[in-house]
Amino acid sequence: MLALRSVAFNLCFYLLTTVLAVAGLPTLVSQRAVIRLAQTWAGATLWLLREVGGLDVEFRGLENVPEGPLLIAAKHQSALETLALVTKFDDFAYILKRELLWIPLIGWYLSRSGMVAIDRTKGTRAMALMNQAAASAIGHGRQLIIFPEGTRRPPGAPPAYKLGLTHLYVALGVPCLPVALNTGLYWPRRSLRRRPGRAVIEFLPPIPHGLARAPFLELVETRIEAASNALLASGRAELAAHGLAPAPVEPEDSRAA
């Protein structure tokens, strides 16, 4: 049953993505229209995931999300949060690697939607360029989403937070919203299996601007990891109650998502 539902969802998901990517080409005339198309795609995907795959996504702590420009630091275990988060922010922008802009068709949408792309070939200058682009997005009132570990990590893997988040926190002058989750139990990376149940994405209390780099990084990591570990424990218990084993822990590597 799990395999059949996973196959059915994946077929529907890739068909939906293809249809919207082609039919949505006229939206490329407007950044706002591309953002709305992305939110439509994400919302439809979450509906398919629930109705076909048997996996619901619960958002907790929405009362913690402040209005206005914002830096969002999210745990990253799965592709699921990448699409789910866009349904909760009116004018989001992701920090992403420049290579994603080269994907045929999809790259056009990423470019037109004003994502903040990092050119790693620039070496140390890449950080300054990222800060400049991020400041422009924040100046336009956008919500900037970053995955502090830089890539997807298996559920329960030791944290590997990078300094890019602290540079943005200091430079941008806006609150940071930590986000915990357990999505990797249900939508594992490098797998086509989608486990049924209830994945949770939790918005934690925001951290106001003004902390020094080291205390900020320690605080945001402690909050995200503690909350994510609690969600992982409850998620594993849910899967076990339904006779489902979570994805096995993968060997770690340094490849980007």
Tell me what you see in this structure.
The chain contains 7 helices and 7 strands; from the N terminus they run H-H-E-E-H-E-H-E-H-E-H-E-E-H. Helix 1 runs antiparallel to helix 2 and helix 5 packs across helix 6. Helix 4 links the parallel strand 3 and strand 4. It is an alpha/beta fold and 257 residues long. It is globular. A 7-stranded mixed β-sheet has the order 1-7-6-2-5-3-4, sandwiched between helices. The longest helix is centred in the C-terminal third of the chain and has 29 residues.
Summarize the topology.
Blueprint (H helix, E strand, L loop, with lengths): L1 H22 L7 H21 L3 E6 L9 E5 L5 H5 L7 E6 L8 H7 L3 E3 L6 H15 L3 E4 L17 H9 L3 E6 L15 E7 L9 H29 L16
Parallel strand pairs: 1-7, 2-5, 2-6, 3-4, 3-5
Antiparallel strand pairs: 6-7
What's a quick, concise take on this entry?
With 257 residues, the chain is of the alpha/beta class.
Number of helices: 7
Share of helical residues: 40-55%
H-E order = HHEEHEHEHEHEEH
What is the typical, i.e. mean, pLDDT?
92
Largest sheet: 7 strands, mixed
The low-confidence parts are 253-257
Structural class: alpha/beta
Distance between the termini: 29 Å
Strand segment tally? 7
> Beta-sheet strand percentage?
5-15%
- In spatial order, strands of the major sheet run 1-7-6-2-5-3-4
The gyration radius over C-alpha positions equals: 18 Å
Shape: globular
Key words describing this protein structure:
single chain; disordered C terminus; 7 strands; 14% strand; 257 residues; alpha/beta; 42% helix
